[in-house]
TrEMBL record:
Pfam families: HTH_1, LysR_substrate. PANTHER family: HTH-TYPE TRANSCRIPTIONAL REGULATOR, LYSR FAMILY TRANSCRIPTIONAL REGULATOR. Transmembrane segments: none annotated. CDD domains: PBP2_LTTR_substrate. NCBIfam families: phn_lysR. This is LysR family transcriptional regulator. The lineage of its organism: Bacteria, Pseudomonadati, Pseudomonadota, Alphaproteobacteria, Hyphomicrobiales. It comes from Shinella lacus.
């Protein structure tokens, strides 16, 4: 097994094809194909299903990709360490967040400190965040439920209650508080089943002997917000995520308090990476100042 063979396999896997892998590595497609073929022949294993339209990983290929993700991430960390501040001058930080607004003040401070670092932010629910971190597709996650796992380095940002909200024209707009039983009589707009907000709300309703059935299920917080703003029903969110929207009014829920914890998380094994560590340090200082 040679390094160039694993590198060729890894890039075909993450870029989804031999041509794109060749472009990423500044090599020819035949050279990439030859390296992958030699790797497969040497170990008598099929790593890719090949057809005219697409290249997909076999089960063996998926297992090897999990290894090469860690391998090349460690390589990058070694390069960053040896090149000292290179990562803080021209690196890239990948964040997956269930609600990006929890990061705004941290991002602003991080940008002032490291203006040349490229930051990408993707949206996702709790399941997406954890999956992306484990797959090395993200460096840092932001989510509304602190995971009970020793795999992660966790920094709590805040803790706020779940509230209901409706459009200003909706009949409930004049109410400041509502019970779960009353909510059950209205058209409800829920997020997808992977949402921790939804899970906590349904669990509390069940505990109180109330069944909350969504009339509409929408993927993502912004989709729920727009449906509710258009008069589609009543939505739910943590109070910290409600934000400022003149189309909507918040409504307290008359029930035992349901708190959503917002936290930064990263894989513990990657917490010493220069960019991750720099972001965490800024977040810690801001949290201490706020406290």
């Amino acid at each position: 097994m040679r390094y160039v063979q694993l590198r060729a396999f890894h890039n075909v896997a993450i870029h989804g094809g031999f041509s794109r892998a060749a472009e990423a590595l500044f090599l020819t497609q035949p050279a990439i194909s030859d390296q992958v073929r030699k790797l497969e022949e040497e170990y008598d294993v099929l790593l890719f299903n090949r057809n005219k339209k697409q290249v997909t990983l076999t089960q063996a290929g998926q297992q090897l990709l999990e290894v090469t993700r860690r391998m090349f991430d460690v390589e990058q960390q070694a390069l960053d360490l040896l090149s000292e501040s290179r990562a803080l001058r021209a690196g890239k930080l990948r964040i997956v967040a269930d609600a990006a607004h929890h990061l705004l003040h941290i991002l602003a401070a991080f940008r002032r400190a490291y203006p040349t670092v490229q930051v990408s932010i993707d949206a996702g629910n709790t399941e997406t965040v954890i999956t992306s971190l484990h797959a090395y597709e993200a460096d840092i996650g932001v989510l509304g439920e602190i995971p009970q796992s020793s795999d992660f380095e966790i920094l709590k940002l805040n803790s706020t209650p779940i509230i209901a909200f409706a459009s200003r024209d909706y009949p409930l707009a004049g109410e400041t508080e509502i019970t779960l039983a009353e909510l059950a009589k209205h058209p409800l707009v829920f997020r997808e089943r992977g949402s921790k907000t939804r899970q906590k709300l349904e669990a509390m309703a069940a505990q109180c002997g109330v069944t909350l059935t969504p009339l509409i299920e929408a993927e993502g917080r912004e989709a729920v917000r727009e449906i509710v703003a258009a008069g589609g029903g009543v939505g739910f969110v943590s109070s910290a995520e409600f934000g400022q929207d003149n189309r909507l009014v918040p409504i307290r829920i008359d029930a035992p308090e349901m708190l959503m914890d917002e936290a930064l998380i990263c894989l513990r094994e990657r917490s010493n990476g220069k960019l991750v560590n720099a972001f965490y340090e800024i977040a810690r200082k801001l949290a201490q100042t706020a406290g």
